[in-house]
Amino acid sequence: MASKHQSMKLNDGHSIPALGYGTYKSEEVPKSKSVEATAFAIKAGFRHIDTAFSYEVEEEVGQAIRSKIADGTVKREDVFLTTKLWCTCFRPELVRPYLEKSLKKLQMDYVDLYLLHYPVPMKPSEELFPVDEHGKSSLDTVDFCETWEVMEKCKDAGLVKSIGVSNFNHRQLERILNKPGLKHKPVCNQVECHPYLNQSKLLEYCKSKDIILVAYGALGTQRYKWVDPSSPVLLDDPVLGAMAKKHKRSPALIALRYQLQRGVLPLAQSFKENEITENLQVFEFQLSAEDMKVLDGMNRNFRYLPAEFLAGHPEYPFSDEY
């Protein structure tokens, strides 16, 4: 196997490619770009594609994957595809119908990994971000452990190969792990993670439970509507810049390599072909223990995406330290 196809073992026996291609796009990017960029990422060598119901590009992502299967670049089993259950679909009776909706949009028989997108339920709605008459988020009271039980059934039914969570803190993970009658534990927890928010305590906790930490926002993040425009640009940080010079690599590659060496699985997102190709070079070099220490020192517990629309809920995950 080429080094760019390195993978990690999940706690249910499946394997996940160690670098993922993220498909979130901001509103101003046309949907056709999602098809082109995802197809290009697969052609370049990405085998792990991460999407979500709430990104509203499942159809485009599915189209891109199918086009690369049709032209012989990959077989379906070569591609590891993740999608996520959105917060408005947490009521147990909605879980499977919404998974089936995602599968229909993707035009796939199964997904490799299905995640609870946040630990916070919102009222069922056709809107992704339902609000009440005061303009506040319409939050719900479903216990995510009940949602998890239906996710387990979806795995048993073969609609998904593995199940996991996203944006959970350690206390919330603990609740699932200690759930009476637990059949399948989460294989991963996908969270915002980068040198400014290195999640070292959560990472340590996840490793102790054999749960892989997957990093979104691993390169900082794009300046879209959820992100404070005055927030610092991670890839412009002089520490990353100096390290990039030293290794004759880009700051993005240093940020991705940092995660891999900590045992974190990073997602890289770009619509630029040169960047997509370059991100796959992350397996071609090593950072020293000294480099890793310097990068650890960049942590400032800074979150680009605090998910304020969920902040009024008792399960809001980011009030805890980790």
SSE series: EEEHEHEHEHEHEHEHHEHH
Distance between the termini: 36 Å
Please give the share of residues in helix.
25-40%
Q: Please give the largest β-sheet.
A: 8 strands, parallel, barrel
Q: Enumerate the spans where pLDDT stays under 50 for 5 or more consecutive residues.
A: none
User: What fraction of residues sit in β-strands?
Assistant: 5-15%
Active site: 55
Family: Belongs to the aldo/keto reductase family.
Domain NADP-dependent oxidoreductase: 19-299
GO molecular function: oxidoreductase activity
Task: Note down, in words, how this protein is organized.
With 322 residues, this protein is α/β, with parallel strands linked by helices. It has one domain: TIM Barrel. It is built from ten helices and ten strands. The strands form two sheets. Strands 3-4-5-6-7-8-9-10 form an eight-stranded parallel β-barrel, surrounded by five helices. Helix 2 packs across helix 3 (92-106) and helix 7 (238-247) crosses helix 8. The longest helix has 15 residues, at 92-106. The radius of gyration is 19 Å and the shape is globular. The model has no long low-confidence stretch (mean pLDDT 95). Belongs to the aldo/keto reductase family. The active site is at residue 55. Residues 19-299 form the NADP-dependent oxidoreductase domain. Keywords: NADP, Oxidoreductase. The record marks 84 as: Lowers pKa of active site Tyr.
